[in-house]
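OP here, attaching both records as promised.
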Amino acid sequence: MKRLMIGLLFSAALIFIFFNSQILAQNKQNSTTSNKASSKLVSTNIQSLNSSASSQQTHGSYQNNTNACASCHQTHNSSSEKLLTSDGIYSTCVSCHDGTLGIYNVFLPSTAGTFQGTTGGNPSMHVASGSLTIKSAPGGISGAHLSDDQIKAKGGNWTTEFNCASCHSPHGSYSDRLLHYNPNNMGNTNLKEGGNKAVLIPIFSYSATILSKKQIDSKEASGYPFILIRGTKANLGIIDSKINDNDTVIALYEWNTVGGQDKYRRLDNPWLYGVTYGAQRTYWTQFFKTETPDFTLGSDGEYKNVIDFSDEDVHFQFNKGYIYSSGTQLNEVIRGDIAQAYVVRLDKVKISTYGDIPVYAINQSALHQGPVDPKGTALNDSSINKITTSDGTEVAVGLGKAMSKFCSACHTDYLAHSSKEVGYFNTSEYRHSTDLDQYNCVRCHFAHGTDVTLMRDARGNTIRDLMTINNWSEAESKTYLLDSNPDSALKRYTDMAVCYACHGNLATEQIYNNPYAAQDDLYKNMPDMIPYSEQTTN
């Protein structure tokens, strides 16, 4: 019996070694015969071997020896669809961001607001628990009164649940605060449907006059004044040592007016990588050799008239917004689809550290074309446009507009200019301006939620301020700041003080011309700054 057992164990060992060697051989073969797209996927986050273990990030910027995955995912078994450590995205996020492990506690007051209100404080929150779908967003696709099938045909992820990952990208982002590069999938949705994707854009070869002469009508297929220009890196003003001098490069340009001058200007906004599988495999960003997409397969199993990420001899620089090749393929394309990422940059000021990781507060004024902080990240960030005012102040430009554009991925019709009837889904209503740095979404609203403990009056006074200035009790101050509406709409200011805080300081004639106006006490700047010392979480 003992000999039999030894024999069985020996046989089992031989079988294990045989099959294991076959698996290793098959893996080696697979690694050398993988499809062309997979062979191009290499780590883009390689960090120095000298990086300390404590400097590893949980969300993005992964090292090649990362152990971050286990922070949010189970390897084999989970009660959640995405193998998350908790039941659903919201529960997984708040298992750390309730102050237990993560740096940022979303249930404490911050520049983003709070996800926890107080009893009797008339709170309102972005309901990120997954109980609502994205189409519930005010100003969104619900204004079009469509069925779910019609909504899906429009693009976007309108019928999916709204949760933390609807606004934040847990695996990395082009934006500060991990704001999503493709919220509501609107980066891959046609501009005509409120998205950020320009489709069937015509491609022109570079010439000395091309930038100053409008090439297409704004009613072209893309619906917007975009063109793609093909040339060398010198032609397009691109500095990239990987590109040879004679390589063909294609980049996206937009017709706009800057400083009174109309011309095409190259957009360095990142392009989106992504694939949709259906009747055919479709990359979100791709180029065509025909006027309309032709997905006919060639003898090699690839599309004959399409250039996309699967093509070996072309190089997509998604994070820089261009494509290049040493071959001839890019000389054959005449149209392109460009899915563009959403990018939101902020002026961050370091206030502490969490281990080796810096903790930042936000200079909110920079979102409203206010001065950048001398110690903030915006000052030396070349991706943030800045101007110097007559008194020498450095001012950020475009941050507020980018924030409003981000919010409009769900609240699409709210991206508007006043006195105009605009909208993608409901075109019969006038809107408040949100398309300027000075008047962006977060000027009036918190992103996470609000409560009487966070709200201010038109002068920017908080409960604490009122207790000091007026010698009021805490209860009296709360009564004064309590919003009349139990659903306080994520407002930063109580009731319609959210209007008066801005329109009052503009000294509009109808407010100013009355005997009760504070003639000598007009405040020139809408209060919008929460002290860094109070920004303990976000």
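Record two, same layout:
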Amino acid sequence: MLEMDAQKLTDLLRATIEPNPEQRKAAEDQLAQIHKIIGFVPTILQIVMQSNVDQPVRQAGAIYLKNLITNSWSDHESKAGEPIPFSIHEQDRAMIRGLIVDAIVHAPDIIKVQLAVCVNHIIRSDFPGRWPQVVDNISIYLQNPDVNGWNGALLTMYQLVKTYEYKRSEERVPLHEAMNLLLPMIYQLMVNLMNDQSEQSMLLQKQILKIYYALTQYTLPLDLITKETFSLWMEICRQIAERPIPDCSHIDDEEKPEFPWWKVKKWALHIIVRMFERYGSPRNVVSEKYQKFAEWYLPTFTSGILEVLLKILDQYRNHIYVSPRVLTDILAYLKNAVSHSYSWKLIKPHMVAIVQDVIFPIMSFTDADQELWETDPHEYLRLRLSKKKPHNKTRNKALSRINVGSATTGKVLKNAGVLPHVEKAWYMSMGAAARGYKWADVFKLSRNAACNIYGVLSDVVAFMPFKNSSIHSELCYLCPGEDLASHLNPQESGTEPSVTKWKRQLKYTGCNEELSYDSSI
């Protein structure tokens, strides 16, 4: 299109964000009339790339471009008797493919988001057939010493990897061919960035880790990522997990998880946990082809990783802030680790401290919980039961950390003494309340944690000597008039244990000011 047309399109885009609805509608109608003209789409992209155009106008253009590419990039088959659906002309598509990576590199972040969607759609449609050059475009920017070009190149690379993230191994050949060139580049870039503790460096490190996670989370390509390469990436993740976080005490707790240093650590732990649970846990791997890899993984990485994870848990138990997502990943790793004798021997000496000083505080009913329960119980239940909240994920992982299968749970109960600590907290709570101590409310927080943990352990408790234990007397206080042995100990009653009901009751009882038993559950 002519240069004058570019100015006209700029004015139309500006009119689409005007507060006057009639003016807005007229601009939208005019754009709808001319959007099929050859040259229209590349001109929109050129407007988005112009730094001298107001950012709201550029953003409006980016959104318009994203919608056009999403809906009209590929050729559509027409049905009999219906008009041929509009698709962007191949001449325009070629121009877009030649400009889009440069556009992402130089665009501000708010526009990068829209352009990334465009790139993702183009890659799904045209890579590798019509757009093999995207790999070269990425590599040119990664090799350029100008740090300002790295973020856009990494974002484009991320869209490439995401396109193949969930595909089967045989469908990932084009990606693996591209990563033969790109993976060593981003590893070297990551090594260089590790010495830079600036915020910009942290954001770049996070993006690189996201790429590696998307590349490996469902399929680990052993022909692309050899044991030597895998070890290098695991060492990077271990160093990031161990790396201290700068002081962020000036930031509110709700905003601390967004602190770039915590986000990098989160993604490093995502990778560590994912590699262990899918490829590094003997007899639990997702495919038999990873069994030998898992047998190599366990003795090679377990000791170094557990040392770092236990240090982070020690910070948490000493009241040093740890991001909820980081804590969740650590508990997820430990959940898998306790099922292997090799890693269990390393965890066992720390188990009592983990239960008493980490899991119990996580499961406890806090003052903030109490305030929300009293002011808005519906909102409390919604937040508490939501699986999307990081704190709830941490609580769920803490529960599953204890109950990871009957054999492992039995080992934990027997060798680490989990249950006595649960009993102690519950006993102190009940005793303080019964005696009317003013500080009894303090123990109500522990009582809630005990309720939650008892609920998870109900399957195991059901098969332990029960009737003469202190647990029995405390449960009798909670559930008067019930034959608890008939529910929890089939050996004594000759009946099958109704553990589901007790698990549900014990799990949620601690929310209320007074403990009560509802026999209708």
